[in-house]
């Protein structure tokens, strides 16, 4: 059986930071749908976001990336930190569940082990194209799958709150920074990028205003090509101006929807 | 001698979370000046923001408030969490300085004590009216004082980076949420609130646009009163509409400067 980080922290506790971990909220977009990646650990009946412990030799950002890869097979995600969560009630559910969990490891652990104390969770979110992802679930997970953000299963600890705070941060972020480069085809129509923004913001956006504001940022360029989507409908295609797009990522490109 | 939280964590290590602490970036505004509160610990030659350890019985928000009060005498501050900082290089400076520091306590501590490991810092910022604050410095601080944000002294660890990230978050925040209620007199002129926004954003704002956008949010109300500031200058006074202001704090009141 493949070793998990739960086993590792029990065997090598001195290699990990105590009382602090990372939780990754992995959002996925595909064709007008926004989902979030959740896992259901074997020993438990509820779902969680994917998270894990931090090694003393790595930064919290490196931990977020290592955990995303080791527990889901996802690589090179652009993680954005949004906030940390920490209060003593986290350990009530946490310690009960952690005890069920550690039983799986087969390692004898005392009831007052420090990993049953309260952990501060540093939350990261990312946004990816979910149709392109091949999920590889972890050793101790019964399931790992995408859930629509408006139809989530029962969640453990404060993970529902963590997801809602991540979504708030993502929505604030896209009012200030460009998105779409890895979420749309290389060439796309205005209705396609319009749907992307509407889906993530969770609200309708006026067509004209949207197009006007987006064009004003300079991050997209109109091509001399159309896409045939019906007998009488051939909207123009657009692509990102990568230089302006990267500038926007660096310095902001306010859309203020 | 009054006991400090450094002493307490050495005497009662089991009462504190390990490897995670809070750092408070306390911004102060007064009459066109933006400052930040820094302390200079007795054993060290550089300055730091004010921070401290988290008790297992309190949330990270409660810790931020307790530390602000115990180390600076500041009460009832509205703290906003902005981000966490964590990487192994934090412990290089950190452990050297922490060792100088623990010598002060007179308590014998081994060289490999866990408090010399790397700590994840959860950053909070707040904004207050600095002319109304009576600072009470901590037991182990040589100095604790306000510094202009564009003229900071030499700072320890990554605290310069922490302050710059806090300022970025504050600036993003005021584009979406109202500020000013505790920073201006009950009645104020448009030039006064205009200066407040310009000072915090660190850039000039067009007079007309500023007034138009601010009035459009409904958070300020024009009074039928003027302020006499010169023989021929009597600008109108304004006050906040507290209900609209609170609504804005809850749901946002986009100014997008």
Q: Percent of residues of chain A in helical segments?
A: 25-40%
Count of β-strands of chain A: 9
As an assembly, this protein is homodimer
Task: Work out the count of structural domains of chain A.
Answer: 2
Inertia-based shape of chain A = elongated
The rounded distance between the terminal residues' Cα atoms of chain A is: 49 Å
Strand content of chain A: 25-35%
Contiguous low-pLDDT stretches of chain A (5 residues minimum) are none
> What is the H/E string of chain A?
HEEEHEHEEHEHHEEH
CATH architecture of the largest domain in chain A: Alpha-Beta Complex
**Biggest interface between protein chains, with counts per chain?**
A-B, 28 and 28 residues
* Cα-atom radius of gyration of chain A: 21 Å
The CATH C-level class name of the largest domain in chain A: Alpha Beta
Number of helices in the DSSP assignment of chain A: 7
Give the mean pLDDT of chain A. 88
């Amino acid at each position: 059986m493949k070793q998990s980080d739960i086993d590792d922290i029990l065997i090598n506790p001195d290699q990990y930071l105590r009382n602090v971990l990372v939780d990754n909220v992995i959002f996925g977009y595909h064709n007008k749908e926004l989902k979030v990646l959740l896992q259901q650990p074997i020993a438990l009946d509820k779902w969680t976001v994917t998270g894990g412990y931090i090694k003393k030799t790595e930064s919290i950002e490196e931990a977020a990336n290592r955990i995303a890869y080791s527990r889901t097979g996802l690589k090179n995600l652009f993680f954005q930190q949004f906030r940390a969560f920490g209060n003593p009630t986290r350990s009530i559910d946490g310690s009960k569940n952690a005890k069920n969990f550690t039983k799986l490891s087969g390692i004898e652990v005392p009831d007052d082990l420090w990993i049953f104390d309260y952990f501060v969770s540093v939350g990261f979110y990312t946004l990816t194209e979910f149709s392109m992802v091949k999920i590889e679930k972890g050793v101790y997970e019964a399931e790992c799958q995408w859930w629509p953000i408006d139809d989530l299963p029962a969640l453990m600890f404060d993970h529902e709150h963590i997801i809602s705070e991540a979504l708030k941060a993502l929505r604030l972020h896209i009012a200030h920074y460009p998105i779409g480069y890895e979420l749309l085809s290389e060439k796309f129509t205005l209705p396609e990028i319009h749907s992307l923004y509407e889906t993530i913001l969770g609200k309708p956006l006026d067509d004209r205003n949207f197009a006007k504001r987006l064009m004003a940022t300079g991050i997209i360029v109109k091509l001399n090509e159309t896409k045939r989507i019906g007998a009488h409908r051939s909207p123009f295609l657009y692509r990102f101006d990568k230089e302006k797009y990267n500038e926007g990522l660096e310095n902001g490109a306010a859309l203020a929807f």
